[in-house]
Design a protein that fits this description.
This protein is α+β, with helices and mostly antiparallel strands. Among the domains are: 80 residues, Immunoglobulin-like, CATH 2.60.40; 100 residues, Helix Hairpins; 53 residues, no CATH class; 96 residues, Immunoglobulin-like. 24% of the residues lie in helices and 39% in strands. The strands form 5 sheets. Strands 2, 3, 5, 8, 11, 12 and 13 form a 7-stranded mixed β-sheet that branches. The chain has a 6-stranded mixed β-sheet with strand order 19-16-15-23-26-25, with no helix packed on it. The protein has a 5-stranded mixed β-sheet with strand order 14-10-9-17-18, with no helix packed on it. Helix 2 packs antiparallel against helix 4.
């Protein structure tokens, strides 16, 4: 009896130890990348002397097994770690499920009866069609016709016609009924499918084999990558006035679709690539050679497309550097890449959030604040009245690289008023970044033709000269003076027979290559300012001109 009790106690102890080897670790720290996340899960477990097996269960099914790292505290050490998927068994069935299954049986019986009746009616209709054809084929005076009187033949025809009409109407009713039943049947099946116990929700688990010299409690931390997560940058740009610094609030939209909530975790954001190669980098020789210049006429269609693409790149790059007016050589256009890549393209930034964060696994965007700081900015007003009758406030930020800005959407607030959104893209500029703070309704601008302008068109012996004049009027309704940049343009000729001449520019800076006019004007408080320009177009009188926009 004593031996039996000892065995029972031993068995109970074994069962308890065996049951305790499965633990659900606590997610304590998460590093979210632009795509994916590194998750750290921790648990304190009791291991026996010798070999033990611990299973970390209820982990994300979007686990990257190659990324697994395990850290064990104390004097125990890890002998193996294996990740595997676990499919849970079926859960309890909904009480509605049996009712739906019975209803599906009844509907199935109704469909069977409909199909049987349709088959009978179709056969009857075919028989009647054959009989009607036989009656119609009877010749007057034939033996078959002599056996029927005229009234009998008339009654037979009427019978065929009425019965065939009844069959067709009934077949139509059956078709409508069948369609309705099929629709109900389909919806019931979908409902039943949703009510079925879900056996497809898999979870991940890590089987750890641990060796320990003595029984002890150890802390185990497993770190791994999951794919269904990410973040995108978001900014709030707040300006309290032209004499104040620009308040930059760096935010992030964090997404968690890993299947498990991150509750009160230490959250980090990173722009690094979590799937980088762990092998050391090895440099290869880099050679420099003369660039080959190709004639434009020798380029095929594919090269023309490449040339067009590179043209846009070069123009964008040069405009950012303030030298868009410089003509671009053909060899520069077809160069596959610059000698030195832009260092900003490979910038790696990381952010540590000071407070614990909770990100639910619902796939929704969770906005978290990363950082706040005042950014020195120069304010300037900008207007292109030819395109938009509004004056825009711009903030110029220099030395922006130290703020670790990434391309993203920015919400703009001016004097506590939301004025819209803009897109921050620091990769498109070199030394100064322009941020549009929206329209200023206290400044009005109009572009009109002056009333004193009368000369429009003159015809000479062989040519026509058309003259155009415009006046731009600005009214500053603010209580402080403003610095305003005004842009306009005149056409640029592509033909030697078309002459475009700038007659009057009123102090504007003129770019002859692109026909652009730029005024830098100071407008005092509650006062107005006007600028004016005039240009003429001369062309042969036997031709017509048109404006072509790029």
């Amino acid at each position: 009896m004593r031996s039996f009790l000892f065995f029972a106690v031993f068995l109970c102890s074994f069962v308890r130890v065996f049951a305790d080897n499965r633990v659900t670790p606590l997610i304590t720290e998460v590093t979210v990348y632009r795509s994916g996340a590194k998750v750290s899960s921790t648990a304190t477990v009791r291991v026996a002397a010798g070999n033990s097996e611990i299973v970390f269960e209820n982990l994300s099914p979007y686990f990257n097994p190659a990324s697994l790292q395990v850290k064990i505290g104390g004097s125990a050490f890890l002998t193996s770690a294996i990740f595997q998927m676990k499919t849970p068994g079926p859960g309890p069935e909904s009480p509605r499920a049996p009712v739906l299954r019975d209803s599906l049986v009844f509907l199935g019986d109704d469909l069977t009866r409909i199909r049987d009746e349709r088959e009978v009616l179709t056969n009857e209709n075919n028989i009647l069609n054959r009989k009607a054809e036989q009656v119609g084929a009877m010749n007057i005076g034939s033996p078959a016709s002599l056996s029927l009187s005229v009234s009998e033949m008339r009654e037979l025809s009427t019978f065929y016609r009425q019965r065939m009409l009844e069959i067709k109407n009934r077949l139509l009713e059956l078709a409508i009924k069948e369609r309705k039943i099929n629709e109900i049947y389909r919806k019931m099946q979908e409902t039943l499918q949703r009510l079925q116990p879900n056996t497809a929700n898999q979870t991940g688990e890590i089987v750890l084999k641990i060796e320990s010299a003595a029984a002890q409690s150890v802390e185990i931390t497993c770190t791994y990558l999951v794919t269904q997560a990410g973040w995108t940058p978001l900014y709030d740009l707040r300006s309290a006035g032209l004499d104040k610094a620009l308040r930059l609030i760096y935010k992030a939209n964090v997404r968690n679709m890993s299947g498990f909530d991150w509750k009160d975790v230490r959250l980090h954001l990173s722009t690094a690539n979590p799937l980088v190669n762990n092998n050391r980098p090895v440099m290869s020789p880099v050679f420099v050679d003369f660039r080959t210049v190709y004639a434009y006429k020798e380029l095929n269609e594919q090269s023309k497309q490449l040339n067009t693409y590179n043209m846009a790149q070069v123009e964008t790059r040069d405009m950012a550097r303030g030298r868009a007016e410089t003509p671009v050589a053909m060899d520069e256009l077809i160069s596959p890449e610059p000698l030195e890549p832009d260092a900003g393209d490979n910038m790696i930034a990381s952010f540590d959030l000071s407070k614990p964060q909770t990100i639910l696994a619902d796939g929704q965007e969770n906005v978290v604040t990363v950082d706040e700081q005042d950014v020195p900015a120069q304010y300037e007003y900008h207007a292109v009245p030819k395109l938009d009758p509004a004056v825009f406030l711009l903030a110029k930020i220099t030395d922006y690289g130290k703020y670790n800005l990434l391309p993203g959407t920015a919400n703009i607030f001016y004097q506590d008023t939301y004025v819209g959104q803009t897109f921050v893209n620091p990769q498109t500029v070199t030394d100064t970044m322009l941020i549009s703070l929206g329209r200023d309704e206290q400044i009005t601008i109009k572009r009109v033709q002056p009333k004193d302008f009368t000369e429009r068109r003159k015809i000479f012996n062989s040519s026509i000269r058309e003259t155009y004049a415009y006046e731009i009027a600005v009214k500053n309704n603010k209580s402080i003076p403003i610095q305003l940049e005004i842009l306009d343009q005149i056409p640029v000729s592509r033909q030697k027979d078309i002459e475009v001449t700038l007659e009057e520019k009123d102090g504007a800076e003129y770019n002859e290559t692109f026909g652009k006019l730029k005024w830098e004007v100071q407008v005092p408080a509650n006062q107005s300012k006007r600028v004016r320009f005039t240009y003429s177009i001369k062309y042969p009188k036997d031709k017509a001109v048109t404006v072509v926009r790029d």
